[in-house]
C-alpha cells in the first residue's frame, strides 16, 4: 500500500492506494472519441476494442511529487481529474487534480504499457465530491507546459465521476484505496507537449478555488550497458 495525503478543507486525509486505474477514451461524446481513435490509429497507436477503457496500473505510480524522471524526451502529461476513495461513506469520495505522465514512444506498442511507464501525479489538496457534484460540469481543467497553455476545457467534456463510481461498483472496486484518473481533454497541437515544466489546474469558477499539481521532468542518464 502506498499512502497519499490530501488537505481536505483543512483536514489531513491519508489514503493507502490499493488499486490505481487510468480511464482512456473517456470523452462525453463517444462520436468524438471514435474520431480520436481513428486519428491515433494513423499515428500507429493501437485502437481499443471498446470505449471507454480502463487501464489498471501499479499502485506505486500514484505520486505526489515535484519531479518525474524519464528515460527519454518523448514523454508528456495529460490534464485529468482523479477520484480517490478514502473511506466507506459517500463523503469519503474525494476529487482532486492529476496529471497522467505517459511514454509516447511506448504508446504505439500498447497504451497500457505506456501508462505503466510513467507516474500519475496527484495534487496535495482535494474536494469532497459531494460538495461539488451539483456543478461538476462547470469545473475546468487546464494544463500548462513550458509556460504555454496546452489544454483547457470543462469537466462537461468527460464522462462524470458518477459514471465511473457506478463502473467501480460493478467491478467490485468502489472501496477504500481505489484511485481512478479520468482520461483527458484535447491538446493544442501548436504547443510542444514535450516541453517542461508541467502545471495542471482543476478550478471551481463558483468559488474561485483552484487545485494544482506541478512538476519538472528530469531525463535520466543513458544506460551503462
UniProtKB/TrEMBL annotation:
<dbReference type="InterPro" id="IPR036663">
    <property type="entry name" value="Fumarylacetoacetase_C_sf"/>
</dbReference>
<protein>
    <submittedName>
        <fullName>DUF2848 domain-containing protein</fullName>
    </submittedName>
</protein>
<dbReference type="Pfam" id="PF11010">
    <property type="entry name" value="DUF2848"/>
</dbReference>
<dbReference type="InterPro" id="IPR021269">
    <property type="entry name" value="DUF2848"/>
</dbReference>
Amino acid at each position: 500500500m502506498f499512502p497519499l495525503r490530501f488537505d481536505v478543507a483543512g483536514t489531513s486525509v491519508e489514503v493507502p492506494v490499493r488499486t490505481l486505474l487510468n480511464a482512456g477514451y473517456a470523452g462525453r461524446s463517444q462520436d468524438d472519441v471514435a474520431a480520436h481513435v481513428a486519428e491515433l490509429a494513423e499515428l500507429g497507436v493501437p485502437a481499443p476494442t471498446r470505449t471507454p477503457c480502463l487501464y489498471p496500473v501499479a499502485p506505486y505510480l500514484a505520486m505526489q511529487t515535484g519531479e518525474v524522471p524519464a528515460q527519454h524526451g518523448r514523454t508528456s502529461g495529460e490534464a485529468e481529474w482523479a477520484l480517490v476513495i478514502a473511506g466507506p461513506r459517500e463523503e469519503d469520495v474525494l476529487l482532486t487534480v492529476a496529471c497522467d505522465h505517459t511514454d509516447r514512444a511506448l504508446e504505439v506498442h500498447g497504451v497500457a504499457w505506456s501508462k505503466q511507464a510513467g507516474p500519475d501525479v496527484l495534487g496535495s489538496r482535494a474536494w469532497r465530491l459531494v460538495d461539488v457534484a451539483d456543478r461538476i460540469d462547470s469545473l475546468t481543467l487546464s494544463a500548462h507546459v513550458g509556460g504555454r497553455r496546452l489544454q483547457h476545457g470543462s469537466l462537461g467534456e468527460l464522462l462524470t465521476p458518477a459514471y465511473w463510481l457506478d463502473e467501480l461498483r460493478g467491478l467490485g472496486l468502489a472501496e477504500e484505496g481505489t484511485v481512478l484518473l479520468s482520461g483527458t481533454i484535447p491538446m493544442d497541437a501548436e504547443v510542444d507537449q514535450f516541453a517542461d515544466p508541467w502545471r495542471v489546474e482543476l478550478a471551481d469558477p463558483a468559488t474561485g478555488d483552484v487545485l494544482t499539481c506541478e512538476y519538472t521532468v528530469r531525463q535520466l542518464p543513458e544506460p551503462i550497458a
